[in-house]
Protein: ABC transporter permease
Organism: Hydrogenophaga bisanensis
Amino acid sequence: MNRWLQPRQIWALATKEFRDRLRNRWVLAVALVFTVFSLLITYFGSAAQGQIGPRSIELTIASLVSLVIYLIPMIALLLGFDAVVGERERGSLDLLLSLPITRLELLLGKYAGLAAALTLSTVAGFAIVAVLLYQRFSTAGLFHYLGFVLSSVLLGLAFLSLAMLLSVLAKDRARASGLAIGLWFLLVLVFDLALLGVLVASGGAFGGEGFAYLLLLNPADIFRVLNVFSLDDVRRLYGLASIVPPSLGNPWLMGAAMAGWIVAPLALASWRFRP
């Protein structure tokens, strides 16, 4: 079916996906998880130094970065891994495609609905911490915290795009779930260790600015660099910052790289999903 994209069709599918997540309380559950963990980290992150409560915007963001790196990619992958392959297994994919809707509209509609659910749950989960920081520090560093929340949303959207790609490529839900878990391990746990291992094993021979640009191959590292370079105190807390050149501290460059991780997997999924 060759025709222009119909926004009404995409909107209808996105609304259905979003309402399904609200109906099964997925959004509420994820928002509660983010709220509980972010509050615990904000209040007790400085307990080792004998202080309860947020000491500074910088240290709060530094603590929350670790939470986001591990939690949001996993939630996004689990949210989207069966978006297409699940419909195929249930036998409802052929029914959807028999309607006056293109495959691209189906893919974009599902992604938009899931992205809205993920964004709402993420923002809601960090909202209470924003209120607490505002009460403690007024507006003096809240700008950086809002930037952190925005980058967290973008990280989730990037991994959701990867999940949609896996859902298109996988032949069944079991394989899709396995690929999602494997991708999480690769990008969140293995990638940085491999880079640092090569750097140490080579005695720094493969270091330098060119080596650091390999971080752009991982959306989790792009998120980390965005937040590491936004504040001086946070930058000093991460050993990874010692090998990252100042040129990677450009937020526009890193934002464009993150946007690429959102668009490219979706484009590849659309190409692979063609009849």
